[in-house]
Amino acid sequence: MTYSAEISRANPSCFVFLVDQSASMDDPIGGGARQRKAEVVADAINRLLAELSVKCAKEEGVRDYFHVAVLGYGHTVGSAFTGPLAGRDLVPLSQVADQPARVEKRVKKVPDGAGGLVETTTSFPVWVDPVANGATPMCRALARAESLVSDWVARHPDCFPPIVLNLTDGESTDGDPASAAWAVQTHVTADGAALLFNLHVSATNTAPVTFPDTDVALPDPYARTLFGMSSLLPQHMRFYALQQGVAAGELARGFVYNADITSVVQFLDIGTRATELR
Amino acid sequence: MPKRGNTERECEDSGRVRDTGGTVLAAVADGASESLLSGEWADLLTASLLDAAPDVLDDADRFAAALVDAGRSWRAWLDDYVAGREAAGRPIAWYEQPKLDRGPHATVLAARFASGRWDAAALGDSCLFHVRDDRLECAFPLVEPGQFDNSPPLVNAFTRDTALLARHVRTASGRIEPGDEFFLCTDAIAEWFLREAGAGRRPWRVLRGFAADHDGFAAWLDAVREEGLMRNDDVTVVHLDPG
Fold this sequence. Notes:
Oligomer: heterodimer
Order of helices and strands of chain A: EHEEEEEHEEHEHEEEEHHEH
Radius of gyration of chain A: 18 Å
Mean pLDDT of chain A: 92
Low-confidence stretches of chain B: none
Order of helices and strands of chain B: EEHHHEEEEEHEEHHHE
Number of helices of chain B: 7
Largest sheet of chain A: 8 strands, mixed
Helix content of chain B: 25-40%
Distance between the termini of chain A: 31 Å
Strand content of chain A: 15-25%
Largest interface: A-B, 27 and 36 residues
Distance between the termini of chain B: 26 Å
Mean pLDDT of chain B: 95
Radius of gyration of chain B: 18 Å
């Protein structure tokens, strides 16, 4: 059975995040929100890294179930980490958790237990800042990701397959990214092929789409290209998506359009899930 | 025994047995991997259940109330733990806080053996096996290997909803005949046990053979995990032979 390998410190997997940092990311996201696309993807990456760290946290620290790279592409292609990890590519998750650039305090509203909401302050670690500068060399970024994946698979032939998660507005400027995307997914461990997921942030005012199994509802060629580049969700991930109320069909792909993708972290199995009784 | 690749300290199972003048109480608990301090919670659960009133295994409501009582003890334990971390210059990190706020989770199973009768209560997938005349007389609460998954019902230390817990508690009881044996097992070895029994083999003979041979049991576990016959997980077995 594929995509069932144990994820452990002895048999870790890896995540490669690709962050579009091109000039077009300076535009606002669709749907009436005032946030710039660059801010949306930076927030998404920081939340993903935080969720992954919390998921793998134990009393003695964060366990290195994953090694993580965050590559930016825009004016250049390279590490998008800021702070102590600047310039690094694959970093053990414990070091990611221990070395954010800063930990901000953010206010959020939570249920007060009496039907209302109350403001509370939470920690928001930051590893990646919003950047919008230059062209969109998505093919080069995917090739760089492929290189990391290839090297990882050679060193960890039995691991849960690497996951590459591309966050972009979709407008590649160095060619059709489909073949570079396919190349990433040709690297295979004993547990299956590397996975490529895409988060498309768009200025188009269209309804959000999460893990679709067809591209018919997608509004533009960029979205359809990214959908076509995305891996099928493995069976167990589809199962968890369904548990979270997402109608992920048999052919659902790891593609999200103007919607939250942090749920991907919850798709990963590192042991007995801490779920509440209902 | 910890899962392969983990240290003894990282084992999140707990098992306890107490003989109190003719009544034997036993409990196992299995802390959830995704929780923080779940091994400590499992340990507090088994200790608390053995200290609880003797009637705690009489029905699901009383067992659920005992779980809530254990949770009340957790708050004080956690306050001490947080203070200890601060005193040691290792305050709670940002990535620990969300899990501490949610509380630890564990499965739990407890059983009482007295006056020719056994009574058990469970929440989750830790199992009791009753063996008589070299055959499996009763499996509780799960009866087939296909019933195990990685989202079993769990008791959270912060749950105060006794009715909610009681809805998920399962109870069982039976007679004890001379020569009967009982095995209380956490999920990975329980799943193996049921698969072996379902295939017509006698897993109780294998486990009985180890008695107190800790090293022999560890070597056997390594072998069955290597062969893929058992999930790599923490393992606890309590073997009782009431005589």
